[in-house]
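QUALITY CONTROL LOG
STEP: pairwise intake check
CHECKER ROLE: data steward
CRITERIA: each record must contain a sequence immediately followed by its structure tokens, with no blank fields

ENTRY 1 OF 2
RESULT FIELD BELOW
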Amino acid sequence: SFIEGFQEVIRICREVDPKIPIVLGGPALSLFPEQLMEKLEADYCILGEGEIALVELLDALNVGNPPNAKMLHPLNGKSVNMNTMAPAWDLIDTDRYFREGGSLNLQTKRGCNYKCAYCSYPLLEGSTVRQRDPIKVVNEMEFCLNQYGIDYFFFVDNVFNYPRAHGVAICKEIIKRRLKLRWTAYTSPGVVDEAMFAIYKEAGCDALEFGSDSMSQIGLASMSKWFTVTKIKESTRWCRENQIKVSHSLIFGPPGETKESVEETIANIHECAPDVVIAMV
């Protein structure tokens, strides 16, 4: 459904200057490179992480040494070292981004070793979790607070609270520096305990989105989830006790779903009474 819009963008670019190379990247391209390269007729594409590979491609093009291959694999298939990079906030309109978006996005890790049946994260980022140094993460938050007045952050990690110790270390560094900021994140109800939420709250967490996906054991098993309905309920209760707002994402209709399992999920959602429910079919 997005293809025609991209085709129109590329058509306009070609009209402006047919010689300018067009490069594709991103998650959809990384999952379906042959199909998208054919439909969009681009010059190059970068599979996977693009921070280093795009710069290398631009350098090669600038010196008149274009690569022979159209599909580029960064770092010969190796993963990016996240501790060697930092976003160039000065190259975007950070003030407007925060003013209109309400938060600034940060990433503290990449990769996921869980095997949820529907998920493409391990294909895109790898199945090994690569963590940024917690001190560097908080340095970036403090910089954005002092430089741009940004005091609300969204951790875009697929699972912020795994490994548990990494997220807690970030929180302890925020607390140590007494930074007056707030944040939210994607989290799993499978890696939780009461003490973790208390630390989150002290560090400025005011909302969490749980990738629960189902609140019936049939649904959880179908999607290869490793946690239980009881754990989801405990997560919600501990958030409530720490005045952290809660969102649950749900997927209805996985293989094996029944009328009874749908009703069980709905009944458990009412019991948990989260602030927000995001339901997909």
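ENTRY 2 OF 2
RESULT FIELD BELOW
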Amino acid sequence: MSATQLSPLLFPLLRQLSDGKFHSGQALAQHYQLSRSTVFNLIQQADKLGLRIHAVHGRGYRLVDEMSWLDLQDLRTRLLAVGQDYLIHAQDQIDSTNSALFAQALAGAPHRSVLYADYQYAGRGRRGRSWQAPPGGGLAFSVLWRFEQGVNQLSGLSVVIGLALARALAQCCPAIEKLPVKIKWPNDVLAGYRKLAGVLVEAQGEMDGPSFAVIGIGVNQRLPARFREEIDQAVVDMDEMGARVNRAEVMAVILTELSTAMAEFARTGMRSALQEWPRWHAHEGRQVMLRSPDGTSHGGLVSGLDQAGNLLLKMPDGSIRQFGAGEVSLRPLP
């Protein structure tokens, strides 16, 4: 199922149906000044997204599953309470929060700008992969961070951000023995070795400064089965982990952890991240296979990170090689 832009009329309708009650097609049509056929077509569009809508003759429509939406005022209040001064914008749908915020950054958007979307239909992950966030199914947002230093001093930033995201999600999710929150280098967040969240960092600027990074964050909250079927790896969502928290709470925790991590990165670089990394890395001390874009493979024992956040691999001959995140993909060996 390829995701596409939705009718803007669908989002207020879904919010109305999110109260768990039945709403007649006639009442919905009157409330939103639409025809009954338009309401029916919108319901069909939601069904194609994998959103289960119960239709009962004489009673109307209701969402079968609970659906969460971001309360922007709640988020701002939570951040203000812990002294976080992000500039947050939210919209119903977007192709890619990273692409949009990157363009805004080039046009002068301020430091600590955040762009959130309830539905992301053409998001991007690492190595050219897509990252979709269906309505109510995932958190998708991007953060603009500006630096005085140049892009050549931002090595390891992806690792720092991955650690911050893992810490935040570990706070939000119950401690389940079979689903511990871990990281797959450089910054995929896993639970029980299934992907829970991911990060895409895109940086630009002068070699000696200033520079900026757009940090895209995607979290699986409650993925419809139809979306899961098209994902080419094992995934898990917060609902499956028993995390019953609202979006504002999750985003506030993530943005607070991100702010703390970025302040530490500015003070000490990778020092704190390197100390913390072994505890969080899902494959530390394990045999893995790294595959390059050209198809070549490298097998060895994971042996930490270097000062730039590159993965260190102990090769069969005893030598240590370093690999950059943009060069390879990592797969554990049995």
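INTAKE CHECK: passed for both entries
DESCRIPTIVE NOTE, ENTRY 2: Residues 127 and 326 are 7 Å apart (CA to CA).
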